[in-house]
Every structure is written in C-alpha cells, then in structure tokens.
Amino acid sequence: MKIAMIGQKGYPAHYGGVERHVAEISERLVRDGHDVTVYNRAWYGGKQQGNVNGIIVATVPTIRTKHLDAIVHTFLSTFHAIFKKADVIHYHGVGPSLLSWIPRVFSPKTLVVSTFHSIDRYHEKWGWFARTMLRLGERFSHTFPHETIVIAPALESYCRKEFKAETHYIPNGTTVHEEGTTPYSPKTTILDEFNIEKNNYLLLVSRLIPAKASHILIDAFVHLKESQKDNDVVRTLKLVIVGGSVYTNTYVASLHKQASACSDIIFTDFQSGNALEDLFRSSLGFIHPSITEGMPLAVLEAMGYGKPTLVSAIPEHMQLIQNPQMLFRENDADALEEKILEFVNLSQEDRDTIGLANKMYVTKHYDWKHSTELLAELYESAYTKHINPTKKRQVHTVHNTA
C-alpha cells in the first residue's frame, strides 16, 4: 500500500515521541513491502527529498511559528499526498487531525487514519484559542478518519468517555538493548564532552515544556543537594537534562536560572543517535516527572536499556511502572526528592534487579514489530471495509535502496 505519514516534524527522528513513533513504524512497514512517504519540515529534518532508509521523505514548506508550523505543514502535505494518490493518509496527533476532512472530501478512495498520541491541550504552552482548536482536533480525530488509533489504554478510556468513540489500541514499542553491544568506539563521547561519569548521574530526556515538569525535578534535585551535603553518594551525583525548547524559550530560560546555583545540573540540549545511546547506557537511573503523557517513549527507552526508572504517578506512567518504590506524587518536588534519596541509597544489586524487571516487562509487552504488524493489519482490513469492500487490496512492494 502507498502510505502517507503526516503530522510529525520529520524524518529521521532527532527528538520527539511522535517523530520516533513514525520513524519506527515506517521503517518496519517499508521492510514489509509497503511504500511509505513521511512528510518532513526543513527546519527539523533538513531539505532532503527522496529515499532515506527505504522511506520516501517529502519536504514541503511551512511557516515556522508556534501556531502556524504544524497546521500549514499538514495542509500542504495533505494535498501533496492526495496528488500522489496515497492509498492511506495517516495523521499523527489531534492538531493535524483538524484537517482529516480534506481527503474525505477531495480523495474519497483514500483511507484516512488518525493516531491520538496525547491530550495536547493540557500543555501550558498553548493559549485559549489553540486549546480550543486542539479540543476540536480531538473531536475531528474521531469524526472524519475511517479509523482512530490510541497508543495508551488511558487514551482509549478518554475517547470512549468524552466522545463515545471506539478506537484501536496499538501501543508504542521500544528496542531492548543488551549490555556491551555498542557498535562503535569513538575517541571522545558525550560523557567526555560534558564531564560526566558513568553511573554517577540521573537522566531526564524530554522536550522542555511545562507539562513535562522539568522544573519539579530541578527543584527536588537542588534541595536534595543542599540537605544531603554529608551523603557521599548525593554529594557527587549529577543530573543530566537532555532536551530543548519547543517554542518554549521563556520556560527553558527559567529552568537554566532555576538550576544556576547548582553546578551538578547539566543541560545538553537535544541529543540523538550514539550520543543519546551513551547517555542512556551510562546513567544510574532515569527520571520522568511529567504531569500529562500519552505513552512516554523516553520511559520505554530507558526500560529497554534496563534502567531503573522513577516516574510521576499518573495513569500513563503507572501502566509501565508498578513498583511503588519508583513512583512519586505528580507535581510534588518534596515527594520526588524523597524518592531520589531512597533510590540512590539502594544497593547496586537492588537497582540492577529493578532495571532487569523493567527490561523484561517491555520485552514482553512493547515490541515495535508487533505494533507494526497490528497497524498493517488495520490498514488492510479498514481499506477493504471502507474503500474497496469487493476486492482485497494488493500490497505494493518497494525495494529498499538505501
């Protein structure tokens, strides 16, 4: 099938959960014989066009402002996909789904699918008008697409309660990493660059937006360092924050100011590839203090590395982490500080046991291959049901020349 992915910032995935999701499933769909086009924004993925890892990357223009970037890119990408006669147009996110009516009107032989990744209107970066539009996007994601996908059971329940809508639950996946399998030997690493030591730092990987609650983590860490000056483990411990602004420059500046009195808090900006792998592998543990989530890919990734993972006690996290030792009250710096202290005072054997349990859990329940198979089955069955009920669609094979 000819499949168009719209709504993500681009490809390859440098950062962002939606971008990673699209990259992982698109690469596997291509290997399974489908023709996949991923729409790209030049500021994110460069001005590339054509075949990248077997995926057709289509860079179309946009207007790079907070409120116009996604919707303009979605509009132009949609008409490009219609012109290219895509069999499936798949929208990612409730914002892009605002335009899911367009192919229903102008390309009735195209299957339209939407994935509801998160309740974006909860993010504090949006004003009242944007939140209203995102709420409308939630409704549109169930009204115009032929099929709607959610990536977490909490979102499935939300859609059923708010819109009386039935959805398809297809979870995110992760890659399980074995110790000592790093396929490269650089002269210097990201650890050298930022003067951090293996197993002597806690890691956060996240977009720096208020909903991810990095400020809560910084508050907890700064107070921990001040209150535990006689604790040898705490005294040398560092906090590494990987991520940057997403139209949230004021918030990011406030984080740097908040952390300025503590030299053990390190901001690396966005990282990807080998650098990000090194940071995950070498961390003592991972922390994710979000107030709202869809299905947190960064948490899944940390679990795939076998890392103990401290998370806020929101439903989306508690689907992944059930160990009460590793849960803290959301939006509560004191509770997080207490849990960090408990965690760093655990024996290495106890930390390894927690990390191994995480790895075993995601290995069993969150596999990209299985999620991609579920998606491909949905495409085929939905196409037959809605577009061509009299004849089963033939798979269009693409040879990977990347």
Automatic annotation (TrEMBL):
<protein>
    <recommendedName>
        <fullName>Glycosyl transferase family 1</fullName>
    </recommendedName>
</protein>
<dbReference type="Pfam" id="PF00534">
    <property type="entry name" value="Glycos_transf_1"/>
</dbReference>
<feature type="domain" description="Glycosyl transferase family 1">
    <location>
        <begin position="192"/>
        <end position="352"/>
    </location>
</feature>
<dbReference type="Pfam" id="PF13439">
    <property type="entry name" value="Glyco_transf_4"/>
</dbReference>
<feature type="domain" description="Glycosyltransferase subfamily 4-like N-terminal">
    <location>
        <begin position="15"/>
        <end position="174"/>
    </location>
</feature>
<dbReference type="InterPro" id="IPR028098">
    <property type="entry name" value="Glyco_trans_4-like_N"/>
</dbReference>
<dbReference type="InterPro" id="IPR050194">
    <property type="entry name" value="Glycosyltransferase_grp1"/>
</dbReference>
<dbReference type="GO" id="GO:0016757">
    <property type="term" value="F:glycosyltransferase activity"/>
</dbReference>
<dbReference type="InterPro" id="IPR001296">
    <property type="entry name" value="Glyco_trans_1"/>
</dbReference>
